[in-house]
Write a structure and sequence with these properties.
Elements: H1 8-34, H2 39-58, H3 62-79, H4 87-108, H5 118-128, H6 160-168, H7 202-205, H8 215-226, H9 233-261, H10 267-294, E1 296-298, H11 300-303, H12 306-317, E2 321-326, E3 331-333, H13 334-355, H14 359-364, E4 371-380, E5 383-390, H15 397-406, H16 412-417, H17 420-424, H18 447-457, E6 461-467, E7 471-479, E8 485-492, E9 495-500, E10 504-509, E11 516-518, E12 521-526, E13 529-535, H19 536-540, E14 550-556, E15 559-565, E16 567-574, E17 587-592, E18 598-602, H20 604-608, H21 615-629
Parallel strand pairs: 2-4, 9-18, 13-15
Antiparallel strand pairs: 1-3, 4-5, 5-7, 6-7, 8-9, 8-16, 10-14, 11-12, 12-13, 14-15, 17-18
């Protein structure tokens, strides 16, 4: 039975509000270290902890009340001038807030948390008595585990017939005899219930797992936390108003349908029908936008975790680093916020660990002792731009090439053919690291690989700019939402395909006389830029049935190229249905066109990745396409 039986709603409200309060307290503590005399800041911190203690009192969580009471008294003495803030005292305070977060984790699993470590309580008591406290080892937030791609369907080849049915909802015209296999489920484009961002207590939860007997209750409780979202009531009012307008238009269409079925097909009736359909089209578009806005959340809720992380890691490494955050009010799709956490944690940690120099090194080369790491978010058109900038030593392309060769990630010939911009991309290779020795912070070469993988899963891209001696800039470009994707619909071999519009620069006609052979590859010169020509049909594995008439000038990662196609249909906004449990190379998902036919959305980054271009994966992708397009 739960330790909080009968108080589940109160517990959920407490965890949601107190976790946000604790994150705010952590950030203000980092600010307080820079401005120890700021009484207003101390008052805010005191009030935050007092509120957490009060909520714990309602739930009778004695261990949490005891720890909060000691820490609150410490804040009271600091704001009254009875104590002076030192780095060692701040370490103890942050250790206390970390244990509070651990306790939230236990409560999230519906059980009473264990009492705080007696040594921590003793340090708090010593500080309250005015005694010097020993330097505590900072405990930075743990680095998230590398995300793993979804496993492919185990066992035999997938049943393409059933796969076709799963995607289209109808049986294929051409049938082949295959052993029966479970259908591949297609995930809905928009979750029925949006996921809730993980509470700040989520990381310690892993260290304080619930006993096996209570696992089901914990899972149920945590699932509830992940499916809640805060929405401005004005946005819900807008959705309700539009729903009412659509209901009125539906009634109008029902009346017109009755009139038409009864034989009333005069010009006035048909004109009224046309106007009603046009009105419905506008209202549905407005409703779609309004619903999308309910999923939008300020990215500041994610950013608030990182000042504490940067401070603790810098102190552990003996560096002086200030994390400057801007653009917290920028809004992003709620589901994307969760998937952004791992990449941003890795990038912030890398900036502190790899990017900036030690205090001694900075002073020796004439830089300020304090390093500045900037984390910003801005909306640029229909995309969000995230930037992580440090003023450190920068990255040397020659060193990156040498390290990649030493680790066997690339051969010497490939390294010598790379320009500096391409060499910077080597940091994203699995297993790449510039560290010669593995530490608790870095050196295993898994972080940046995870960053790029997760960003690509969000239909985004990441770029690097670095100047030796001045610093490094990581720029992440993301769509505002994953629910609706702007695409360019093209046609190859009488089959439509969709490519993300964010990668499209322009469409140009292709003439045979424009194509030139360079190093055995077809190229076209566009405004003095030599671009390779890649046939979409050949990338898929089909034979070209006609000479491509058009080329889509595309930008993928650091490479520009021309995608040769037969024709194009136009721009569209589509709802993607990702394919679960199976991911043919080069296929991001599927959508339906206006006439009900399947349109496959291409993942160009995956399709162009030669490291994945094995015969096995190519055959599977071709089989998948042939089944869906009845070319088998």
């Amino acid at each position: 039975m739960s330790d909080f039986a009968g108080m589940e709603d109160l517990l959920q409200d407490f965890l949601t509000e107190s976790s946000e309060l604790l994150s705010d307290v952590d950030n203000k503590l980092v600010e307080l270290e820079k401005r120890p005399e700021d009484k207003h800041l101390l008052n805010d911190i005191f009030r935050g902890f007092h509120t957490i203690k009060g909520g714990a009192g309602f739930l009778n969580v004695d261990a949490l009340i005891n720890l909060c009471h000691r820490t609150e008294n410490l804040f009271d003495k600091l704001r009254n001038g009875q104590l002076k803030l030192t780095p060692e005292l701040m370490d103890v305070i942050l250790a206390a807030t970390g244990v509070v977060r651990d306790m939230f984790g236990a409560m999230g699993q519906a059980r009473q948390p264990a009492a705080a470590d007696p040594s921590l309580l003793a340090q708090l008591d010593a500080a309250l008595e005015g005694k010097a406290v020993a330097a505590a080892a900072p405990t930075p937030a743990p680095s998230p585990a590398p995300s793993q791609p979804a496993p492919a369907v185990a066992g035999s080849e997938p049943d393409w017939q059933l796969l076709h049915q799963a995607v289209t909802g109808q049986a294929p015209k051409a049938s082949t005899s295959k052993p029966t296999a479970p259908p591949v489920p297609v995930a809905p484009a928009v979750p029925t219930q949006p996921a809730h961002p993980p509470l700040p207590a989520a990381e310690p939860v892993a260290r304080a797992a619930a006993p096996a007997a209570k696992a089901p209750a914990a899972s149920q409780q945590l699932a509830t936390q992940e499916t809640t979202i805060r929405i401005d009531t004005n946005r819900l009012d807008q959705v309700l108003n539009l729903s009412g307008e659509i209901g009125l238009t539906k009634n109008r269409l029902t009346t017109l349908r009755t009139d038409i079925l009864s034989g009333k097909t005069d010009g006035a009736t048909l004109k009224a029908l046309d106007e009603a359909i046009g009105q419905l089209d506008l209202l549905v578009g407005d409703l779609q936008n309004a619903v999308m806005k309910t999923r939008m959340q300020p990215i500041g809720r994610l950013f608030q975790k990182y000042p504490r992380l940067a401070r603790d890691l810098a102190r552990q490494l003996g560096k002086d680093v200030e994390l400057v955050i801007s653009g917290e009010e920028t809004e992003l799709d709620k589901t994307m916020l969760e998937d952004l956490n791992d990449p941003l944690v890795h990038l912030v940690r890398n900036a502190v660990d790899h990017g900036v120099e030690t205090i001694e090194d900075r002073i020796a080369i004439g830089k300020p002792a304090k390093s500045i790491v900037q984390l910003s978010a801005t909306q640029v058109g229909d995309h969000i731009l995230l930037e992580i900038i440090d003023d450190g030593k920068g990255m040397r392309p020659d060193v990156l090439r040498r390290k990649a060769v030493e680790k066997g990630l690339i051969d010497l010939e490939t390294a010598n053919s790379m320009d500096d911009k391409q060499a910077l991309q080597l940091v994203f290779l699995p297993g790449f690291s510039t560290k010669d020795q593995i530490s608790s912070v870095s050196g295993r070469g898994v972080g940046m690989d995870v960053v790029k993988t997760n960003i690509q899963k969000l239909n985004g891209r990441i770029d690097i700019q670095s100047v030796v001696g001045e610093g490094t800039r990581f720029s992440i470009s993301l769509p505002l939402t994953l629910a609706i994707l702007p695409v360019l619909v093209v046609r190859v071999c009488d089959q439509p395909f969709a490519v993300p519009l964010a990668m499209v620069r322009e469409i140009i006609p292709i003439r045979p006389e424009h194509i030139q052979e360079v190093s055995g590859r077809a190229t076209i010169v566009v405004r003095d830029e030599i671009l390779s020509v890649r046939s979409l049909a050949r990338l898929i594995g089909w034979e070209e049935t006609q000479t491509p008439q058009f080329g889509v000038l595309m930008q993928a990662a650091e490479n520009s190229f021309i995608l040769a196609i037969d024709s194009f249909i136009g721009r569209d906004d589509v709802v993607i249905k990702p394919l679960q449990n199976i991911r043919p190379r080069g296929i991001a998902g599927a959508t339906l066109s206006g006439d009900g036919s399947v349109v496959l959305v291409l993942d160009m980054e995956s399709m162009l990745d030669d490291t994945q271009n094995s015969d096995h994966s190519a055959i599977k992708t071709t089989q998948f396409l042939e089944m869906l397009t009845h070319k088998a």
